[in-house]
Write a structure and sequence with these properties.
The protein is an all-alpha fold. Helix content is 77%, strand content 0%. The chain contains four helices and no strands.
Length: 128
């Protein structure tokens, strides 16, 4: 599958959109599981660390899914998936909560791209 159109520009289609949607679904599922865990135990909320772990796990699974579907350059497509995911989250935070760009936004982008890359590399190798 060639994600580039004839003009050489990247098109985000097929497996990329599927992986990004899969990341959001996994984020919702992992958030619900962690919320139940916190509610049923006397565990305290860990703050941004728990949030980054949830985003990282969701993007690792999404990157692996994209890598398996595309079959090559898993690190690249995982990183693109992580970048797209983090930009959507930053846009939602900006529009819904009037949040600006700060250090946590940069940390989210770096974590998202790293976890997506790692998942993409593993996804390509699991396919073979």
């Amino acid at each position: 599958m060639n994600p580039f159109n004839k003009s050489g520009k990247l098109e985000v289609t097929g497996p990329m959109l599927y992986a990004t949607g899969f990341a959001f679904v996994m984020m919702i599922v992992l958030t619900m599981i962690s919320s139940l865990w916190i509610a049923m135990t006397d565990m305290d909320e860990a703050g941004p660390l728990l949030t980054l772990c949830i985003h990282g796990a969701a993007l690792f699974l999404a990157g692996a899914s994209a890598g398996r579907k595309i079959g090559s350059k898993g690190w690249y497509y995982g990183m693109i998936c992580g970048l797209l995911y983090s930009l959507i989250l930053i846009l939602i935070a900006f529009l819904a909560y009037d949040s600006g760009l700060h250090l946590y936004s940069l940390l989210l982008v770096v974590c998202a791209c790293s976890c997506g890359m790692l998942g993409g590399m593993i996804g390509v190798n699991v396919r073979k």
